[in-house]
Amino acid sequence: MAEGGGLASKEEDELNIPRAALNKMIKELVPNIRIANDARELILNCCTEFIHLLSSEANEICNKQQKKTISPEHILAGIHRRDCIHKTRGAKMALGREPYFRI
After folding, report:
1. Which end of the chain is more exposed for a tag (fewer CB within 10 A), N or C?
2. Could you tell me how far CA 53 lies from the centroid of its own chain?
3. How far is CA 3 from the centre of its chain?
4. Burial of 14 from C-beta contacts in 10 A (0-12 / 13-18 / 19+)
């Protein structure tokens, strides 16, 4: 939380991934590596920025299609539109639309 503990810092915290969730993800992904607090903060900021960017892209696509609900297809299109094509397969696997391993 930022110094002063004012309203802006509370709103900023509400827009971020909870630190406990981030710490759990880091621990699961790299269990034997220590990560400095400032590096964790950077990861948190990057994740938050990516989510905001992707949400904005998906919302724009959704609005252009005159839809009221963002669907997984809008998210995938937003990933593609932002030149993050290498992330599309991971997103499809998370949706259960593509197997984790190809035989």
Report:
1. C
2. 9
3. 26
4. exposed
Which uninterrupted H or E stretch holds 90? helix 85-94
pLDDT in tens, 8-53: 555 555 677 899 999 999 999 899 999 999 999 998 998 888 889 8
Percent of the chain topping pLDDT 70: 68
Cα separation, 12 vs 21, in Å, equals: 16
Check: CB of residue 54 under 8 Å from CB of residue 78.
yes
Instruction: Report the distance separating Cα 69 and Cα 66, nearest Å.
Output: 9
Burial class (CB within 10 angstroms; exposed 0-12, middle 13-18, buried 19+) of 52: exposed
Q: What is the CATH number of domain 7-94?
A: 1.10.20.10
The residues near 93 (Cβ < 8 Å, ≥ 6 apart) are 99, 100
Q: Please name which of 86, 45, 92 lies closest in space to residue 37, comparing C-alpha atoms.
A: 45
Residue 22 CA to residue 41 CA, distance in Å, equals 10
